[in-house]
Here is the input.
Amino acid sequence: MQVAEALEKSPVIVVADRCVVVRNRNASCRKCVRACPAEAITVIANEVSIDPASCMGCGSCVAACPTEALVHVGPTDAMLKQAALRSMGQNDGCAVIACARIASKRQADPERYAEVPCFSRIDEVLIVDLVAQGATSVLLVDGNCATCKNRVCLEAAFTAVDQAHALLAAHGNDIDIASITGFPDEMKVEDTSGMYGSSRRGFLSDALGVAKDTAKTAAKTAIENELGYKIDERSIGERLRVGPDGKMPQLVVKRHETALNALDMIGQPESGAIASRLFGSISINTPKCNVCGMCVTFCPTRALMRDTPKNPSDRIRYFEFSAADCVQCGLCKDVCWKCAITLSNEVDAAELYDFEPRVFRIGSA
Ligand code: SF4
Ligand code: SF4
Ligand code: SF4
Here is the structure.
């Protein structure tokens, strides 16, 4: 019922056990709070919530969250990608994405563009993924942002485009991402009646048009499809319990994987370092570290692992860090009571694509 109620007012669902603040109340992550132009998100103790009355559904928080703890369902990432791919097929490789304001004018064939509530719904992973799928350019069609009530959300859209440009440039791609107010003349159609069936109304309006029980099922299925696992009924405490291996349940962050795979398909990195909000790199001040392993316990993605010493009498301990798995959440740094960890948004390209972990050697023989 929570999901159904949230859906009625906000298309963003909080998946609590993916939030690093829920995993550990000392986590400093407030990326969603900072990204939200409506001040709709609160993080108190170890709980994150969205005030549905304030939320504009822009999706800025979704793009900013490193662990996919926030999921947009109007449209979901998968639905948006599908629509954008379809538009590429209709526009000679150009992915056309239109905001709801201009889409509501019904001036173009809806098969030729993907619709988003606002450009802030677009993130760099979508753009990079479309390029990997053959997009030759990206065109964002707006309904005049200057006069739109959502214009405060635009910063998120610029951030996503800048991040996409930086990631693509590091891989030798300089795709044109243009924006235009109103559909270009060649996309306009005199009579669009008959082109706009109920299938075009989008997930949220469809869900709201039916009984609450149906909306609940639709929402749950959409989220589960997006996440790739069933949302079970166990309490959060049970779901986040430390297991016999001394670790908390670990996450696969699909957007992170999608971006990495897409960039790999686009081409070899040209620059030595890649700066982004998607990938992180840590360093450990080994003389400070007392090998308590809190960082390993709380790392949500297996980016940081403890390596078992080959010889049990060996007093040297080893931690392994895999840049390809680090989502820049900062939890390892926040839980390290020796303040031995630093986190950077710059990742060495060679390390990112070299799936051998970096080893930290701690202690002396
Ligand atoms: S969707 Fe936009 S308005 Fe709603 S909580 Fe997220 S950032 Fe704030
Ligand atoms: S950005 Fe994500 S992980 Fe960070 S506090 Fe918000 S919901 Fe939690
Ligand atoms: S290594 Fe640190 S910053 Fe990277 S995912 Fe793990 S906890 Fe987050």
